[in-house]
Structures are given as C-alpha cells and as structure tokens.
Amino acid sequence: MFRRIAALALLLTASAASAQNLRIGLREDPDIMDPTLARTFVGRIVFAAVCDKLFDINARLEIIPQLATGHAWDDPKTLRITLRPGVKFHDGEAMDAEAVRYSLNRHLTMQGSFRRSEINSIESVEVIDPLTVLIRLREPSAAFLSQLTDRAGMIISPRAAEAAGRNFGLRPICAGPYRFTERVAQDRIVVDRFAEYWNAASTTIPRITYQVISDSTVRLANLQSGALEMVQSIDPDDVAAVRRNSRLRISITDEMGYQSITLNIGNGPRAQTPMGQDPRVRAAFELALDRQVINQVVYEGMYTPTAQPVPPTNPLHVPGFQPEPRNLERARTLLREAGVRTPLAVEMTVPNSPDLRQAAEVMQAMLREAGFDLRINTMEFASSLQAATRGEFETYLLGWSGRVDPDGNNWAFIHSRGAQNDGRYANPEVDRLLDAARLEQDPARRRELYAQIYAIALRQDRSRIYLWHRKNIVAHSARVTGFTAVSDGLIRVQGLRLQ
After folding, report:
1. Helical spans, DSSP H, in 371-480
2. Under 8 Å CB-to-CB from 448, ≥6 apart: which residues?
3. Are 186 and 207 in contact (CB under 8 A)?
4. Which of 157, 207, 410, 478 has its CA 20 to 30 A from that of 141?
C-alpha cells in the first residue's frame, strides 16, 4: 500500500512538473543567441520568446506593433516610431528610445553583423524623447519597415551588451516574455517566464525548454510518448501519424522562404573549380535535377518546386519564372562545351538532418547520369553556416525561412554586399536592379524588376539554384492550446496555455 501511495505521489509530482514546463523539440541547434550575429531559423524560434521586436506580423501577414505602439512616415525617408511605455529589459533597465538607437546602430556597425544588409538604408537614428525615435533613410524603401519585424527590429539591453561585448549571445538580455536561463550545446536551451514583461498576462507557462532533436522520427516519437509537448517541425511523411493520434494536433502553413543550393563563385580557394568558375557547368548541374521527383520521393509531394526565392503565395512572385524541365542531353552538352573531364567531382555540404541527406542522395543519383560525381559532406547545422561564411564549401544545401517582403529573400543573398551572400556572387547590373526594387513602391513595376534580376542572376549567371518552397508543419499535444500558425513558422509564446 505504501509503495502504491509513493508511486502515485511520484506520478503527481511528475505531472505537476510537466505542467510547469513546455518542452518544444527543435530540428537543429541554434547558432549564437545574439540578434545581430545570428542566422538560423531555429534561433528565431527561441528569440520569439526572449527578444521582442519593434514590430511583428500576424497570421494575415500584416505588420503590427510590438515594442512600438505605432509608426508614421513624416516623409518618404523619415520614419517616426513611438514606443511602448514602461517596458523593461530582463536586467531591469528601461527599454526606451536610447536603447532602440543603440540596438539599430549595433546592427549596422558591429563586425560580422548579418543585420547590416537588411537595414543599411539607415542614414541616422535620432532620439526625440524617451518614447520617440526618428529613423532617417538615405532613400525611400518599400521594404524597410518589414525588416523591423525580425532580428533587425530586436532591441537589446545596452548595458548588458556593452558589458558582454561579443559574448552577449552567451546570455542575451532583451525585453521578451521569457528570460534566458541556460544552454547546453547540442541539447537544450531553457528560458523562464519574465514576471515584469509588458504583456505578462499573455504568458502563463513558467518555463520553456527547447530540446534539440535532429531526426524528425525521433521528435515525433518524443511527442507521442509525452516527452515533448510541441515540435517545431515534422517531415511530411509523418503527417499521417499525427492526424491518426487523437492526443495530437497539427498546423500546416505555406512557408515564406525556400530550400536552395548556394554555389561558391567567389569566396576563397574553394571557388576555383569548374563549378565555381563556369556558368555552363552550373547550368548543367541544375538541368540534371528533377525537383518534382525529389519532392515526391523525399517529401510526399507536399512541397512546391520553384526556381525563385519568392513563393507563389506572395503577390510579388514572378509567375513566368519557372523551373526548367530536366534535360540530361543538354546538361551533357554543356559539360562538353565547358571542356571538363567527366565524371566531374563536386562536393555538397549538407546539414545533418535525415530528410536533407536523403534529398542529397536523390540528387547524387540524378547528377551521376549527367556526368557529375556528387560527394556529400554532412555537417552539424550551425557549423555548416560558419564554414559557408569562411568559404569552406563548393555547393551548400541551405534553406531560408523567408520574410514577408521579397527584399528579405533576395537582397542579402545575391547582392554583392549582401551579408548572407556566402558564394560571393557579384554582378553590378543585378546590384542596381536589387537596389531599385527596394525603392520601388508600385507592385507591378517591382515584380518586373525581380523578373529582370532572376533572368540575369539565376539563368544567365546561374548564381544559385532554388529548389522548392516548403511547408511549416508544427505538431503539438492537445494539452497545448492558444497556438496561432503564421507563415514564418515561428512559435509565438504569447497566448500559449499548457493544460
């Protein structure tokens, strides 16, 4: 009898502990938790709990205030932002206009910043009063406000940033609903509810643990067993299993980004290959691929094959720019014209997740038929990003979660000054068109500019290979309520409840 009572007490204790902790499975380990220096999508999921932004987007993809209360354009180059009063950082410091000025300037000037190319149209940031900021741009920008809905709009504690320097990412101090508690690399990130959050009533769960589990099947097994309450993503072939389980729920949305292959054209010695130096070889590589077959084999046909970075759901998608059909004869001809000896060895860096490894293996078989010897180099995801920045790759199978404005899917990746242009592609005419697209307010004219960009950068120069637009597939226990699916794929913690 005593043992039964003790066992029951243990179960009740475990149940109570579970109710205090929402466990979310991530498919990769985030990179540095510093909004200025970070690149990973899974990092953005953690930032959604820790670091509020000036603005956010809702399920209708409308830009809405978060740390801001509103904005107005005094003229086409002057943006006035009013701030929410009484907001505190996790260290107790006030989140005010000076903190906004500091954070934006840090994004612009810090060495290695990945935000610089997102907001480099800023000329100056002025403090009008503690709750008013004036941002002056060098030229009008159709895309600028949208950049403040992601990491470029995250405001950090100046006192903490100055004290930590480049180590700020080890213990980020922001103004989000949860404060950073601990991190164990390749295992978990733990955050705890911030009682002084400006919208504290929107958060009730005391603790969130983000658990790193790279295998989709293992993530799902942990969800089914109750070891996790939520998973950031599952693979399409696991969707049916979730739908059959009455204790689970699933949300599927079209993502705003893409999966692509980055090509090293000018980033160090690894670019000095036939693949890096001859667009005919790159064209042959792309023509050997059948996106639809890869989609069917690996992703149950759920994804949308593409040749551009902007998905069909975006009004600035270019309908006429479609993937070319697979053409082995043309691919072999191009390799002969390029004068390369076949089979031509090409290395592809692939993040170490099962679905991407399988996709790379399908491509490997396809490319072999055209005269390529694709060699797959799997790496831990954050390490692969660092290697790409250093130019330690030939081709790189990399996804991008996407932004609500097409500039966020284009400029940073194919402009010669783009912070995420890992292949160092450069074409002055493409730069000019990308800059013009940032300024253009008319949607039809802007779409035409993107059509011109793709014709040069993606067909003439073959600077990058876009493969497909994915789905955001979030699964969670029926015990979790209040989740709102947004096309950016983030898990916003405001409003979440754990029964």
Report:
1. 381-390, 407-414, 428-439, 443-454
2. none
3. no
4. 157
Residues 72, 136: contact at Cβ < 8 Å? no
Helices in 121-196 by DSSP H: which ranges?
A: 144-147, 158-164
Q: What are the structural domains of the chain? A: 19-33+176-253+472-498 (3.40.190.10), 52-165 (3.90.76.10), 258-469 (3.10.105.10)
CB-based contact 433:453 (threshold 8 Å): yes
- Name the 3-class secondary structure at 281: helix
For 259-317, the pLDDT digits (tens) are: 999 999 999 999 999 999 999 999 999 999 999 999 999 999 999 999 999 999 999 99
Q: 364: part of which helix (H) or strand (E)?
A: helix 354-370
Query: What is the rounded CA–CA span in Å between residue 284 and residue 127?
Result: 54
* Residues 6 or more apart whose Cβ sits within 8 Å of residue 107: 35, 36, 113, 115, 116, 118, 119, 152
Give me 159's structure tokens: 């006192």
Tell me the per-residue pLDDT of 80-107, one tens digit each, with 9 for 90 and over. Answer: 999 999 999 999 999 999 999 999 999 9
* Pairing mode of beta strands 258-263, 464-469: antiparallel
Q: In the prediction, which pLDDT does 100 show?
A: 98
CA distances to 357, 402, 411, 420 from 118, in Å: 31, 13, 8, 10
Contact 360, 366 (CB under 8 A): no
CA–CA separation, 106 and 129 (whole Å): 20
Per-residue pLDDT tens for 203-227?
A: 999 999 999 999 999 999 999 999 9
How far is the C-alpha of 239 from the C-alpha of 475, rounded, in Å? 9
Q: How many angstroms separate the CA atoms of 321 and 301, rounded? A: 21
Per the rule left: phi > 0, alpha: psi between -120 and 50, beta: everything else, 319 is: alpha
Q: Percentages helix, strand, coil for the chain, rounded to the nearest 5?
A: 40, 25, 40
Contact, 179 vs 115, CB < 8 A? no
Distance separating alpha carbons of residues 396 and 422, to the nearest angstrom? 9
CA 146 – CA 152 distance, rounded (Å): 10
Taking CA atoms, 171 is separated from 35, 114, 275, 496, in Å, by: 12, 19, 41, 24
Count CB-CB contacts under 10 A for residue 455.
16
pLDDT in tens, 30-65: 999 999 999 999 999 999 999 999 999 999 999 999
Give the relative orientation of helices 443-454 and 407-414 as an angle to the nearest 10 degrees.
30
